[in-house]
Amino acid sequence: MSKASFVVAVAGATGAVGREMLRTLEQRSFPISKLVALASERSAGQKLPFGGGEVVVEELGPKSFEGVDIALFSAGASVSREYAPIAARCGAVVIDNSSAWRMDPDVPLVVPEVNIEAAKTRPKGIIANPNCSTIQMVVALKPLHDAARVKTIIVSTYQATSGKGQAAVEDLLQQTRASLAGETVTPTVFPGQMAFNVLCDWKAGEDDYSEEELKMVNETRKIMGDAAIGVSPTTVRVPVVNGHSESVHVQFHRPMTADEAKRLLRGAEGVVLMDDAYAPGKHPQPFSAAGTDPVYVGRVRDDLAVAGAIKMFVVADNLRKGAALNAVQIAEKLFVQR
Ligand code: A2P
């Protein structure tokens, strides 16, 4: 597609990720001739800020993609299953943030820092954006994998409420207000108390693993192109608005030291290494990562229990690098000469 500017549609434009997609397109001056903001019937006519003005939300329908060059989807898996093929038939390149197409062998699953080449072969006209927890982990693992090939990953996540959508953030805030006022907490989105608590709130997967945990297993292997990587995840929701954190233990096919890992991570694409000596507060944090682009890696240490393995703490804004930014970066790599 050798055009100077593009018609870009955002399906799910009123949602937590959709709004971030609009902000990211604007902040990065993506060359847009027309922005089509799509959501459900409920939001038709609503105005969203874009490009110094406003864009009027339209109801998503089968005709929404006529003349669209690039369609970014973040309106849930069932919307993507139905409408992504329609958008692709209209000639749009679809970049889908839902889980609907990620494991389809004819759909590339792409993190630009790791496997942008895969985005060039897309038999269905669809590219999948990985799960937010997986994206930030593989960005941090990529330089280490290139040097020593990752064998085993043991990861625990501390995931923000915005990963579950805007309504989940509002549930956390209203629960927090009710708790502080000494009132009864009535959850509206989470399956229990989220304020001042941690939850495992994902759907059940298989063998007592959650769907979210299995996404981290399968998507990591597909993106890294290595089906032999062992991934053992525990995913947990914490009462943070925005920004996922991960404690990651990594074993390689040869011994790796923390010093070598820091050398490899320093300057790696998409990574900011925080390598201050241990001091309380000087580590990657979701509060400071929120609203920024990088994957922050800190607390890189030699593992005390397994010789030749390392540990690290990985933090990123789940709405940005974990979703909207990754999608926009894919579009930039494919269509924009910079
Ligand atoms: P709407 O705001 O009109 O409900 P979030 O992930 O923050 O929950 O946002 C989900 C996004 O997906 C919103 O923009 C929402 O629009 C949109 N959406 C949900 N269901 C549909 C649907 N059936 N058709 C079109 N858009 C939908």
Q: Topology of this protein?
A:
Blueprint: E1 6-11, H1 16-27, E2 32-39, E3 47-50, E4 53-56, E5 58-59, E6 70-73, H2 77-89, E7 93-96, H3 112-115, E8 126-128, H4 132-148, E9 150-158, H5 166-180, H6 211-224, E10 230-234, E11 244-252, H7 258-265, E12 271-274, H8 286-289, E13 295-302, E14 310-316, H9 320-335
Parallel strand pairs: 1-2, 1-6, 2-5, 6-7, 7-8, 9-10, 12-13
Antiparallel strand pairs: 3-4, 9-11, 11-14, 13-14
The structure holds adenosine-2'-5'-diphosphate (A2P).
Describe this entry's structure for a reader:
The protein folds into two domains: 138 residues, NAD(P)-binding Rossmann-like Domain (Rossmann fold, 3-Layer(aba) Sandwich); 185 residues, Dihydrodipicolinate Reductase, domain 2. The protein is an alpha/beta fold and 338 residues long. It has nine helices and 14 strands. The strands form three sheets. Strands 5-2-1-6-7-8 form a six-stranded parallel beta sheet, with helices on both faces. It binds adenosine-2'-5'-diphosphate. Adenosine-2'-5'-diphosphate binds next to helix 1 and helix 5.
Q: Would you kindly provide a brief summary of this structure?
A:
This protein is an alpha/beta fold. It is built from 9 helices and 14 strands.
What labels describe this entry?
single chain; 338 residues; alpha/beta; Rossmann fold; Dihydrodipicolinate Reductase, domain 2; 2 domains; 6-stranded parallel sheet; 6-stranded mixed sheet; 30% helix; binds adenosine-2'-5'-diphosphate
